[in-house]
Amino acid sequence: MSSLFADPSILLVEPSAMQAKVVSKAFRELGMDRIRTAENGWGALAEMREVRPEVVVSALYLPDMSGLDLVLAMREETDLAGIPFILVSSETRPQALDPVRQAGICGLLPKPFTTAQLRKVLDTTLDFLALEHTTSIDFRAEELKVLLVDDSGSARRFMRRMLENLGITNFIEAENGRKAVELLAGTMVDLVVTDYNMPEMDGQALVQHIRQHSWQKDVPILMVTSEADASRLAAVEAAGVSGICDKPFEASVVSDLLGRLLANRE
Predict the structure, then answer these.
(1) pLDDT number for residue 218
(2) Which of 8, 48, 133, 177 has minimal CB crowding within 10 Å?
């Protein structure tokens, strides 16, 4: 774990007092003692606005909204948009979890979770926080123009925040592959970051179009996706994607991928 954030301030959103004690105890066993709690989504938002936490940990089902509603509300507020969000849930259905992954979360913990699972998610989250203090990277971030392609505005905002932590400031955005194709026809970019599952034109079709028909066919393409089907991901790799990263993404993995993808383009 990053020593800079070895004990981050945590807001735990959990309607069950018993579950809140279990989760808090697990965090404290890893040396994290700065934990506040909220029983519902609106209370959590009020807590965040009063004292901004460094990490939010939330159940999926809350009495007044869902964990998805909570993270979407956070991403809409400038002061809360960049807070890492960890979901704790016994839910396993993709139709329930995929929208939360798409919304831009740092980690997903099963309920119940093991110490090893908690440690892994915390490592990812603390890496994300530490990126805000990164001042030396292997590519000229301030000179890059990045195209973000995702049908979720919340996911685009979260990815943008993560890339801004690396020093990238120049972005254009598209809500699907077809819009991205239109933008690429007239705008030079240094990197495309795209989702897989999108309406109009999905990520695989976008990669194929860029590699076969675009005047920017050599541009690096990073796919950040919750897609788990191995055959679909293999098809994306065959189409010419430069790198694939899971949703929720590990910030250090994205940083390393970008370093490798862009180091030779200086």
Answers:
(1) 87
(2) 133
